[in-house]
């Protein structure tokens, strides 16, 4: 069995198979994931991202991002500094926070690859529709949490696994760049691992606060 990319447990079971891939689920943190051998190569992954049409002038895209923006923004102190991790080809969430008076940095391995921003400290870090793409979510989320002081916020937006039956019919697994699928139990494991409190203000949003 493959090792879980979130908690590194060797204890997983086969969860689902479709025409293209297999999916395993960890017995410890309840993450569902695609085994490494069935992930896309970097150039294939980039080709999929290049087709994304997200744009900061699109009001529909802003409404979509507001599911994370609104509950997080009302928890921040004025002037809090943030990082948008995985900003993509059309950074928008960072602009929404900047328009409200929050200085922002952005990072994306393909479109904003300045890794020096990952060496600074922030009052909050966001990752919208990002964690499902990560090959090593445990390591990456631990690194992001380390950028925060006590009381800092980590805002994550991703659709959550509910049941094995729903997973088999789920449109979310059809995107070939989606390789990790969190459940509420996965986020609960993560919050405990990182020493953070956890809230679910929306069906696809998790807010973690560093104790």
Which key features would you list for this structure?
211 residues, alpha/beta, Rossmann fold, 6 helices, 10 strands, globular
Written account of the structure:
It contains 6 helices and 10 strands; from the N terminus they run E-E-E-H-H-E-H-E-E-H-E-H-E-H-E-E. The chain has 211 residues and is α/β, with parallel strands linked by helices. The chain has a single domain (12-210), classed as Rossmann fold, CATH 3.40.50.150. Strand 9 (196-202) and strand 10 form a beta hairpin. The model has no long low-confidence stretch (mean pLDDT 97).
Summarize, please.
The protein is of the alpha/beta class and 211 residues long.
Can you lay out the helices and strands and say which pair or pack?
Layout (H helix, E strand, L loop, with lengths): L11 E6 L4 E5 L5 E2 L8 H8 L9 H15 L8 E4 L7 H7 L4 E4 L16 E5 L8 H9 L7 E5 L6 H5 L11 E2 L2 H11 L1 E7 L2 E6 L1
Parallel strand pairs: 4-5, 4-6, 6-7
Antiparallel strand pairs: 1-2, 2-3, 3-8, 7-10, 9-10
CATH arch. level architecture: 3-Layer(aba) Sandwich
Order of helices and strands: EEEHHEHEEHEHEHEE
Mean pLDDT: 97
Q: Low-confidence stretches at least 5 residues in length (pLDDT < 50)?
A: none
Roughly how many Å apart are the termini?
Answer: 34 Å
CATH topology: the name is Rossmann fold
Computed over alpha carbons, the radius of gyration is 17 Å
Structural class: alpha/beta
């Amino acid at each position: 069995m493959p090792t879980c990319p979130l908690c590194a447990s060797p204890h997983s079971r086969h969860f689902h198979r479709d025409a293209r891939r297999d999916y395993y689920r960890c017995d410890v943190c309840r993450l569902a994931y695609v085994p490494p051998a069935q992930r896309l190569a970097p150039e294939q992954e980039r080709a999929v991202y290049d087709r994304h049409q997200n744009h900061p002038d699109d009001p529909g895209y802003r409404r979509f991002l507001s599911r994370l923006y609104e509950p997080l923004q009302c928890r921040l102190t004025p002037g809090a500094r943030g990082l948008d991790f995985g900003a993509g080809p059309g950074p928008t969430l960072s602009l929404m926070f900047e328009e409200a008076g929050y200085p922002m940095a952005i990072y994306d391995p393909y479109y904003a690859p300045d890794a020096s921003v990952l060496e600074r400290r922030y009052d909050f870090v966001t990752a919208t529709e990002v964690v499902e793409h990560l090959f090593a979510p445990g390591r990456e989320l631990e690194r992001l949490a380390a950028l925060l002081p006590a009381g800092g916020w980590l805002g994550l937006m991703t659709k959550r696994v509910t049941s094995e039956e729903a997973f088999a019919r789920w449109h979310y697994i059809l995107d070939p760049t989606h390789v990790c699928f969190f459940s509420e139990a996965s986020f609960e494991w993560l919050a405990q691992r990182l020493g953070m409190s956890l809230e679910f203000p929306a069906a696809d949003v998790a807010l973690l606060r560093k104790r």
